[in-house]
Amino acid sequence: MQPHRPWICSRKIAAVFILLGAFESTARPQASNPSQQQLKQLDLQQLGDVEVTTKSKAPEQVWKTAAAVYVITQDDIRRSGATSIPEALRLAPGVEVERIDGDKWSIGIRGFDSRLNRSVLVLIDGRSVYTTLIAGTYWEVQDTLMEDIDRIEVIRGPGGTVWGPNAVQGVINIITKSSKDTQGALVSTGGGNEEQGFLAARYGGGDPNGLSYRFYAKAFNRSPEIHSDFNRYDRWRSMQGGFRADWKKNERDSFTLQGDLYDQRAGETVQAVNYAPPFLQILTGNAVLSGGNILGRWTRTFRDGEDIQLQIYYDRTNRYEPNFDDIRNTVDVDYLERSYLGSRNHLSYGLGARASHGHEPAVTTGLYFQPNSRTDELYSAFIQDDMTLVPNRLTFEVGTKLLLTNYTGVEPEPSARFLWTPTDTQTFWTAFTRAVRTPSDGEDDFFLSGYIGTSATGLPFFARFNANRNFQSEKLDSYEAGYRRLLGRNVYFDLAGFFNQYSDLFSEDITGSPFVETAPHPTHILLPAEFGNGLDGTSAGAEIAPEWKPTSFWRLRGSYSFLHMSIRRGPNSLDIGSAPATDGESPQHQILLQSSFDLPKRVTFDFDYRYVSNLAGISIPAYSTADARLAWTFWNHWELSAVGRNLLQPGHFEFASDPGPNVAIKRSFYGKLVWISKEN
C-alpha cells in the first residue's frame, strides 16, 4: 500500500530530521485457447468471448468478469517492442510504470508507487514472486523469453479473496505459453545504443503420447542511462535459461513441470551507514543476483467447470548487494477445487501453505535484521460461490479468504460482486472487497540507521528505525464499478471507477528523544524511531480504454487513467512526514494512444504516445514521449524490426533515485532479427 524503501531511505531520514531542526479491466480480452494468429483474425465481439483466469483462478469470459481486468497479449508485446516485462506493463491502463535507472523500476496500480510496491501481487504462471523480506517485487529478476509469454493479465483492484495477502491494489499474472504451442526452433538477436547486444534461443518438441516440451536460453547486455554526475553505474548483464514440459495423460489428467535459472550483474549505487568512521559512504558496485525455481502442477478435470488442481513450487533467490545480502528459499503448496452445487451455484475452494526461509548476514552496522535468519509462514483457505440469479444475465459472487502468518492472527479478506449482462455485448459490474497487506520482516525484524551529522557536543548523530514487533496489517476497503460495451462491430470500450479507504498504513514514527548510546562503539547520539501504522487515507479514480478498428488494416487503441489520493496522519500518529510523499509519488493523469498498421508486403508499423503527469512528492516533472516499431516478415520464417523508444527528447526523468542525483531515461534505438521454424 504505501511505498516501502527500508534501506534506501537514509537520505530521506536525514532530510526529515534536518527539517525538524533536531536533531511514499479494463478488459481487452485475450484467449487462453486460440493461437495469436487466430486472435488477430477475430473481430471485437469474438474477442469478448475468450477467457481470462486471474480473477478467479478459473477460466471465465471477459463479458462475465466482475473486475477491472486488462490483458496484454503476445501480439501486443511483440508490436510494442518491449524487451522486458516492466516495459510491457506500460500498455495496461491504471498501471504506473516508472523507470528509476538502467535496471530498476517503480511499478504501482492505482497509486502507492515505489521500487518495491508491497500492495501489488505478482505471479509468473501462478508462482508468486513477491518477497516477504521487505514486501514487494524485485522487477529486475523477473524475466523469461518474451516470445514465450502468452499474455499478461492485470487485475486493477484487490484480489485477496482468491490470491491472499498483498493483492491489495492489484494482481499481475504473467502467463507463458503451453509447450505444445512452442514446437520447433526460434532464434532472436539484435542490439542498439541501450540494448547493446542480446541473443535468445528456444527449441520445443514432443511425442505422440501427449508430451510436449521446450528449452530456452537468453542473455543481454544493457548500457547505463544518463547521469548528470557521469557515474554510469547502472550497466546490466544477465543470463537465463529454463524449460517447460506439458503432458496430457488422458482426457482427465494433465501435468506441467517447468523451471528457470538466472545469473545477473546489475549495477547500482547505495548508501552504507556504519557507527564507526566513515559514518556514511556512497558505494558503487554490482548487485550479484542469481537463483532458480521449479514448479509442478497437476489438474484433473471431471467436466466443464468441475476440476481439482494441485500446485507445488520451490524458489531460491540470492541477492548480494554492496550494503545488503539476502539468501532465501521458498516452498509453496496450493490446492484448488471447483464444483457445482445444484444448477445455480458454482463453488471454488482451496487451501494453501508457504514457508520462506531467509538469511541476511549484516554487511553494514547501520542495516541489519535481528534475528538474521527466520522462516516466514503463510497458511490460507478460501471459498467462493458464484450464484446465478438470472441465467446468462445476472450473477452474484461472494467469498472470503482466511489468512494466518507468523506475524498475525487470522485475517479475513471477504468480497462481494454483482455482474449484469443485459445483452451479449455489454456488462455492468460492481464490487466490494476487503484486503490486507500483512507485516513483513522489514517491519518486525529490521533495523535501519541514517547518519545526520555531528552534534554540538562533537559526537556523531544518528537516527535509527528499530524493529516494531507490534506492526499490524495494512487494511483496505474497496468499492468498484465498471461498464464495458461493444458498439457495432468495430468500437469497444471499458470503463472502471473506484473508491478506496485505507487504515493502519505504514508510517515512519519518532518514538523518543535523542539520547547517548555507547554500543555499538564509538559513543554517539541516537534519535529512536520505528515503522508504524500511523497513516490513514482514501483514493479515488477511473480508467477508460477504448478500441476502434476503422479498417481491417488499422487499429486504434487508447487509455486514460485518473487518480486522486489523500493520505494523512491517523489519530495519535507519530509519523514524521511520510503522508505528503505518498500522495505525490504516483501520477494523477496518464494517457496512452496506440496506432497499429498492417501494411502491404507483410510490413507492420506501430506508434505509441504516452503522457504522464508530474510526481509532486518527489519533484519529477510531467513528460510526454513516444515509441515506434517498423517490422518486415520475409521468407515466411524471418522477421526484421527496427524499434525506437522514448523518441520525443534525448532523456527524461521518471522517478527519484536514492541516493541521487536522479537518472534520466535516454532515447534509444535497436534492431532485431528473429527466425522461427515452421512448427511455430
Helix content: under 10%
Q: What is the structural class?
A: mainly beta
Distance between the termini: 42 Å
What's the shape?
globular
Structural overview:
The chain has 680 residues and is mainly β. 7% of the residues lie in helices and 59% in strands. It contains eight helices and 38 strands. The strands form five sheets. The chain has a 22-stranded antiparallel β-barrel. Strands 3-8-9-6-7 form a five-stranded mixed beta sheet. Strand 18 and strand 19 (345-359) form a beta hairpin. The model is unreliable at 1-42 (pLDDT under 50).
List the helices and strands and how they pair.
Elements: H1 10-20, H2 36-41, H3 44-47, E1 51-52, E2 60-61, E3 68-73, H4 74-80, H5 85-88, E4 95-101, E5 104-109, E6 120-124, E7 127-128, E8 149-156, H6 160-163, E9 170-176, E10 184-192, E11 195-206, E12 211-222, E13 226-227, E14 236-248, E15 253-273, E16 280-303, E17 306-321, E18 324-341, E19 345-359, E20 367-369, E21 373-390, E22 394-405, E23 411-423, E24 426-437, H7 441-444, E25 446-454, E26 460-466, E27 474-487, E28 491-510, E29 515-517, E30 524-551, E31 554-569, H8 578-583, E32 589-599, E33 603-612, E34 623-634, E35 638-645, E36 651-653, E37 663-666, E38 668-676
Parallel strand pairs: 6-9, 26-30
Antiparallel strand pairs: 1-2, 3-8, 4-5, 6-7, 8-9, 10-11, 10-38, 11-12, 12-14, 13-37, 14-15, 15-16, 16-17, 17-18, 18-19, 19-21, 20-25, 21-22, 22-23, 23-24, 24-27, 25-26, 27-28, 28-30, 29-30, 30-31, 31-32, 32-33, 33-34, 34-35, 35-38, 36-37
